[in-house]
Structure formats: structure tokens, C-alpha cells
């Protein structure tokens, strides 16, 4: 195994094991996870892989095949938010979160490599966190379980890295199974594996990576989260999860004293939670083609209410649907990143070509397009 050989060349001994954790793409349910709502992600075949060994001297050494630079070294006792920057903050943050939660984790040598595209909204950071957490959980015999690992990985990103993400990305990476989407209730972390074999129905789910990330996205995620929290406070509910679609009109009337941005955040989250439920019902009922219309509806909400789309993402959706796709929407945090496109298998190549052509005509770079096949969650591979 290449990564094990690289580890040995770096650190002078074979690793104790090799683990992998996938990126994810979210079918529906965006900006709902930190509102204790519903999401429906699936794991991708793209993974972060970690070769890891324990150390008994309290030293943490981190290296990535994908990032220029040498080994990043830190003392585990000195780890604190802000003490490690850049890519290394993600695995270092997991070590800190485990220790801060009282788990007896010492030092480690870690060598990482990833095929999850960065900046594409496909959770490359969560894959790094979860693969580190799984390896340390096994090596140190912590027995945390997959949801527990995901929560600690989320805390690493929130408190150590400083990104106020919800738990969806880490739960998808830790808990997804091959051939299924993960229907997750982010309030209590209960989940159900929903069979998602589009090929059997003659369908394909394409991921279109726009390969752009606009500066507008910096801090905008936190702004949307703050808007959701302001709406919940004004409505006297714990989170927007507690506002049903049937109560939305009344809720919006109660928010007339709030800013229009807060009202739009509330409208998006309430309607997107409902869209998740409707997509689940369609999949359970054997009608996956009808999901396409809900993807478009979700994109419209993300574009007009939450205002987290961008011209490139809008062009993907407009072009794909115009070329015969059943539906499409941006996925992830927005302001760039990726979109998902639901399409009949025989139309997939034509739709992909249409999107690529539209990007060229608009003067944009060449997008990345690949089929999303639901893959396995985090696991030991060596």
C-alpha cells in the first residue's frame, strides 16, 4: 500500500494501520443541520486516507502527501484553539477534541492523502477529521462509536479550527453505507440508511464541481447561522427545526420586526426541512424521478432566500435542466463549490457536455463532472 510505504519513508517504521474516510455530497437539506433539522447526504468514493501509529512521548507529527511542506509537529499537551493553522488544524483539532473530552490519547505519527476535491463543497475537511478520529479511536481503544466520533470531529472544526459547521458532514463520513443515502435527524443523531440505487432505475446523479470559491463565502456561512439563530430566538423556539411548514406563514408574520435577511433564513430552513421529508417519501415510494423537481425548488430557495448561490452554480442548474436533466441544485455551503444533477442515464453525457459548453461560452474554467455513487463510510483499509 503506497501510503504505508510513504509513512515508513517519513517516520522510519511501518504504520500500525491505515484508515479511510469519505467526502460526501448532500442530496437535499442545506443549512438545516445546525438548526437541528433533517439532511440526506451520501458518501462519495473519494476519501481521505491516513497511515497512523501511536507515540508515547506526547508528540504529534502530521504530514500530507497533497500539501507542500514538511512534517508539522506539536506537543499534544500544548494543543489549543489557534495553536495549529492551515490544513494541519483539522487532524490536530481532533486530537485536541478527544483529549479535551477526557480521552486518553497520547502522541501520534500521521501521514495523510486525499482524493476529495478541496473547495468543492464535498467535505474534504470532515474526511480529514473523521479518518483521524477513527484511527485514534481504534489505536487507543476508546470505543466511541460512529456518532460519537462524528460529534467530536465536529467539535474540532467548530472550536479548534473556528468553522461553525453543523454535524452533517462528519456524520455522513462516519456513518454512511454503500448503496444508501443517510437520512439524518441532526437533533438526536438518529439515522436511517435509505436505499439509493439510481442505476437500477436508469438514473444517474452527477456532481458538477464549478472549481470556484468566491471570497463572498468567507464569513457568510456564519452570517446565515446567526440569522437562523436570531429567527429562532424571536419565535421563542429552540431551533428552526421546531417550526413546521404549516406554521411558516404565522412565523413570518411574527418576524415582521426582524430584518428581511432573518425572515429569508427562516423561510429557507423551514421549507428545506419539508423538502427532505418529501424526497424521503418519494424514494420510499419508488418514485426517484420526481425528486428532480424538489432539487430545483431547493436551489431556488438557496439562491433567492438564503442567497448563497453564485453565477456559476446558477448556470449549472439552468443549463442542466434546459438540456433535459430531471433536476439540479447547488450543494454545500455555496458561493462556489458543486451542484448535483439528477438525470436519466442515457442523457448524462449530453447534459455534462451542455454544462461544460455553457461554462466555456461564459468564459468560466472547465468544470469537473463525475457520477456520485453512494460509497462506504469510514473504515480501516490496512
Structure at a glance:
This protein has helices at 2-11, 89-100, 124-139, 146-161, 168-175, 220-235, 248-254, 260-284, 291-306, 311-322, 348-361; strands at 17-26, 38-39, 41-55, 59-64, 72-75, 107-114, 180-185, 190-195, 203-213, 327-331, 336-344, 368-371, 379-380. With 382 residues, the protein is an alpha+beta fold.
Task: Write up what this structure looks like.
- The protein is an alpha+beta fold and 382 residues long.
- It has helices at 2-11, 89-100, 124-139, 146-161, 168-175, 220-235, 248-254, 260-284, 291-306, 311-322, 348-361, and strands spanning 17-26, 38-39, 41-55, 59-64, 72-75, 107-114, 180-185, 190-195, 203-213, 327-331, 336-344, 368-371, 379-380.
The average pLDDT is 96
* Terminal-residue CA separation: 8 Å
The proportion of strand residues reads: 15-25%
- Uncertain regions spanning at least 5 consecutive residues: none
Strand order of the largest sheet: 5-4-6-3-1-13
The main pleated sheet reads as:
6 strands, mixed
Looking at the structure, what is the overall shape?
A: globular
What's the β-strand tally? 13
Structural class: alpha+beta
Q: Radius of gyration over alpha carbons?
A: 21 Å
The helix tally amounts to 11
The ordered string of helix (H) and strand (E) elements is HEEEEEHEHHHEEEHHHHHEEHEE
Tell me roughly what share of residues is in helical segments. Answer: 25-40%
Overview features:
globular; four-stranded antiparallel β-sheet; alpha+beta; six-stranded mixed β-sheet
Amino acid at each position: 500500500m503506497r501510503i504505508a510505504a510513504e509513512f515508513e519513508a517519513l517516520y522510519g517504521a511501518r504504520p500500525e494501520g491505515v484508515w479511510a474516510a469519505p467526502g460526501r455530497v448532500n442530496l437535499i437539506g442545506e443549512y438545516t443541520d445546525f438548526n437541528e433539522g433533517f439532511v440526506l447526504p451520501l458518501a462519495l468514493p473519494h476519501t481521505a486516507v491516513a497511515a497512523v501509529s501511536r507515540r508515547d512521548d506526547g508528540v504529534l507529527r502530521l504530514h500530507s502527501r497533497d500539501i507542500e511542506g514538511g512534517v508539522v509537529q506539536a506537543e499534544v499537551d500544548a494543543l489549543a484553539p489557534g495553536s495549529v493553522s492551515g490544513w494541519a488544524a483539522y487532524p490536530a483539532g481532533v486530537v485536541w477534541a478527544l483529549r479535551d473530552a477526557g480521552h486518553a490519547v497520547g502522541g501520534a505519527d500521521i501521514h495523510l492523502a486525499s482524493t476529495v476535491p478541496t473547495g468543492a463543497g464535498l467535505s474534504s475537511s470532515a474526511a480529514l477529521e473523521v479518518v483521524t478520529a477513527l484511527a485514534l479511536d481504534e489505536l487507543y481503544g476508546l470505543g466511541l462509536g460512529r456518532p460519537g466520533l462524528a460529534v467530536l470531529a465536529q467539535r474540532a472544526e467548530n472550536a479548534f479550527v473556528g468553522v461553525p459547521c453543523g454535524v452533517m458532514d462528519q456524520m455522513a463520513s462516519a456513518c454512511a453505507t454503500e448503496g444508501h443515502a443517510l437520512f439524518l435527524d441532526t437533533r438526536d443523531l438518529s439515522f436511517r440508511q435509505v436505499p439509493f440505487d439510481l442505476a437500477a432505475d436508469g438514473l444517474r446523479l452527477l456532481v458538477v464541481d464549478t472549481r470556484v470559491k468566491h471570497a463572498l463565502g468567507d464569513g457568510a456561512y456564519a452570517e446565515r447561522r446567526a440569522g437562523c439563530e436570531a429567527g429562532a430566538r424571536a419565535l421563542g423556539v429552540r431551533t428552526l427545526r421546531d417550526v413546521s411548514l404549516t406554521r411558516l406563514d404565522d412565523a413570518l408574520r411574527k418576524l415582521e420586526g426582524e430584518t428581511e435577511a432573518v425572515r429569508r433564513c427562516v423561510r429557507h430552513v423551514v421549507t428545506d426541512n419539508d423538502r427532505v421529508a418529501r424526497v424521503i417519501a418519494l424514494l420510499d415510494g419508488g418514485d426517484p424521478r420526481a425528486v428532480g423537481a424538489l432539487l430545483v425548488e431547493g436551489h431556488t430557495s438557496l439562491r433567492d432566500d438564503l442567497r448563497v448561490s453564485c453565477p456559476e452554480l446558477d448556470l449549472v442548474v439552468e443549463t442542466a435542466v434546459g438540456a433535459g436533466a430531471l433536476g439540479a441544485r447547488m450543494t454545500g455551503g455555496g458561493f462556489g463549490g458543486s451542484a448535483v444533477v439528477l438525470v436519466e442515464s442515457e442523457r448524462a453525457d449530453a447534459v455534462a457536455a451542455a454544462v461544460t459548453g455553457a461554462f466555456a461560452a461564459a468564459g468560466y474554467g472547465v468544470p469537473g463532472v463525475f457520477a456520485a455513487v453512494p460509497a462506504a463510510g469510514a473504515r480501516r483499509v490496512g
